[in-house]
Design brief:
Mean pLDDT: 97
Number of helices: 7
Distance between the termini: 47 Å
Number of strands: 7
Strand order of the largest sheet: 3-2-1-4-5-6-7
CATH superfamily: NAD(P)-binding Rossmann-like Domain
CATH class: Alpha Beta
Radius of gyration: 18 Å
Order of helices and strands: EHEHEHEHEHEHHE
Bound molecules: nicotinamide-adenine-dinucleotide
Largest sheet: 7 strands, parallel
């Protein structure tokens, strides 16, 4: 039996990159998905590409009413809800001394508050219906280490790790599992600078596994955490980064033994 047969998942930020690839693979593994995104054109196109097992819902994760409507739409369309992937993000790169309040809020509102609001909306449905659930939140290597010129992003992604642990503990009694993944550099529209072959090669060279990540690398980790294979995993964090986050000592000059 396919892993997600009779299961339904909402994927925010599902119109692009890691979210879109997770949606494709969830359906390939027997499930049905709702692509929740502010980009209606792209989100609709991804849902059409996937077929009848996918639907698009215009969800703005920074708006609690929109999150609640997304859950209601999902249940009205597919009859149930089993999983949630919080992949939506907006960036606001700048040195912290120059970062405007508007740019700070943009990143935090979507990345951290949006993860809170969407998880809360899904969890309320699960708790009210005594249904188990699984949530996977997209953090980042940037949530583990400060990320030069992306201070709002790093702070947001560190918050996502703690928020996932907090939800995981609070909701264990409801059989709702909440975990985070920390991707390293992954080739998506968000990281369009990696289309430059020189940049991509240079990044591959500093990655222990010798290549940059692809959306499918991250999607497979997300699907594991959504599935019953991870039924004993909650409040946990999975790094999917080719070893990058543990490679600090690879960059120390003066090593004598390699
Ligand atoms: N690509 C990487 O290198 C990388 C690395 C680490 C972590 N991540 C994380 O993975 C997740 C997905 O990244 P990606 O590279 O696929 O990004 P992406 O830019 O390809 O996709 C992000 C999606 O979020 C949507 N979005 C923006 N604001 C929204 C809102 N208010 N409500 C709903 N949707 C909204 C966008 O329309 C877009 O479709 C993000 O959380 C990102 O921080 C990515």
């Amino acid at each position: 039996m396919a892993r997600f047969e009779d299961r339904v998942c909402i994927i925010t930020g599902g119109a692009s990159g890691i979210g879109a690839e997770t949606a494709r693979r969830y359906v390939r593994d027997g499930g049905r998905v709702v692509i929740g995104d502010v980009d209606e054109a792209l989100g609709g196109a991804i849902a059409d590409e996937i077929g009848d097992a996918a639907a698009f819902a215009p969800i703005d994760v920074s708006d609690p009413d929109s999150c609640a409507s997304g859950v209601a739409f999902t249940v009205a369309t597919f009859g149930r809800l089993d999983g949630l992937v919080n992949s939506a993000i907006r960036m606001g790169p700048a040195p912290l001394e120059d970062l405007s309040l508007a740019d700070w809020n943009k990143v935090v509102d979507v990345g951290l508050t949006g993860t809170f609001l969407m998880t809360q909306a899904a969890g309320r449905w699960w708790i009210d219906n005594e249904n188990p659930g699984a949530v996977v939140n997209l953090s980042s290597t940037g949530g583990l280490h400060p990320y030069n010129l992306a201070g709002a992003y790093s702070t947001t992604k560190a918050g996502v790790i703690m928020l996932s642990k907090q939800f995981g503990l609070e909701w264990a009694k409801h059989h709702i599992r909440v975990n985070a993944v920390c991707p390293g550099h992954t080739e998506t529209p968000l990281t369009a600078y990696m289309r430059d072959p020189a940049v991509k090669q240079a990044r591959a060279d500093v990655t222990p596994l010798g290549r940059v990540g692809q959306p499918e690398d991250i999607a497979e980790g997300i699907l594991y955490l959504l599935s019953d294979d991870a039924s004993y995993v909650t409040a946990s964090t999975l790094d999917i980064d080719g070893g990058m986050a543990r490679s600090l000592f690879n960059h120390m000059p003066g090593r004598k033994w390699d």
